[in-house]
């Protein structure tokens, strides 16, 4: 078996056998095949596609390319949540404590962000001093202690994916459903969860731009999970405008805290309740989704989720000051209101443009080595369907560099679209795939 034969075979649209895919992934992992042949193979896959069995075999081989985390020492059914990402997506920071307060162990391995804003690990650093680097034993102990821990992904988790993604990024082969699904699922499966809930987003602020594309990806990932003996469910959700009002790391953390205080945005709260309800059912806390929803809401009403967040931050050496503060101080040097130049209903908000405004301010990474400014970002004052008067503030820019404000404002103005008629409401959750 050699790499050239596999390239020819896939280039010609033939189906690869499991052992051929394993040979390819092992060669990538062991650096025994040159990058130009890997790139050629990826391009062949991009054009000729992979069927479900091939994609599952690719996922399994990538999962087995490095460390497989065992969470067997954690009591109960371990359920992981993964979002395909979007603008203002801070659900993990509110959802984790809510689920943990219901007695379901949340053992989450997360990454840093590349793009509009930081990943979960970046956002958590809004809590001064918090530590997310820890041994697997310490990780497991923390989950057993309080039902919740969040750690950075180990460097040896699905290492084949790291190399393949780096090459996909520079060869124009990122946008392929099989390659996306195998990348996401190999890391999730290697992380040791018994069950997985996926939040697959679509729209201007998501990787998948249409609900059809998102549904295709969600269906494939659910298929992979089932073939590899995991309980799994996927929600296809709207990301055609930012989730919540805050975009930017500390700003998003404050908004997540407000969700747990019962005064968060309706859309963020709704999504957390729905994702959490699915998790409680998979974890066998109840067979009823309505009961599970009530259990999630009760963690907000009785303060147990907020207390769980505080326990989590303290146990991971962080300062819980943001949680304790009635009105957290906004740390950016400059706040600038973007005023509407016309009146009307907000008909649409291009989430990607809002994300680029935040990126301009330093809230995200342009390259993996970029340094994030945790304090900057955007707070929207008006969302889709709300009426705006001339000179009313549609958004507030939080910046530590006055010179960057005008560029961020341009992106925000590009993002907002007004009409005299009110737009139809869009359901947050478009589809549930089991």
From TrEMBL:
Main EC class the enzyme belongs to: transferase
Q: What cellular component GO annotations does this protein have?
A: cytosol
Q: What EC numbers are recorded for this enzyme?
A: 2.4.2.2
Known Pfam families for this protein? Glycos_trans_3N, Glycos_transf_3, PYNP_C
Domain Pyrimidine nucleoside phosphorylase C-terminal as annotated: residue spans? 345-419
Q: Does the keyword Cytoplasm apply?
A: no
Q: What does this protein do?
A: Catalyzes phosphorolysis of the pyrimidine nucleosides uridine, thymidine and 2'-deoxyuridine with the formation of the corresponding pyrimidine base and ribose-1-phosphate.
Q: Provide the family line.
A: Belongs to the thymidine/pyrimidine-nucleoside phosphorylase family.
Q: How does it assemble?
A: Homodimer.
Protein name per UniProt: Pyrimidine-nucleoside phosphorylase
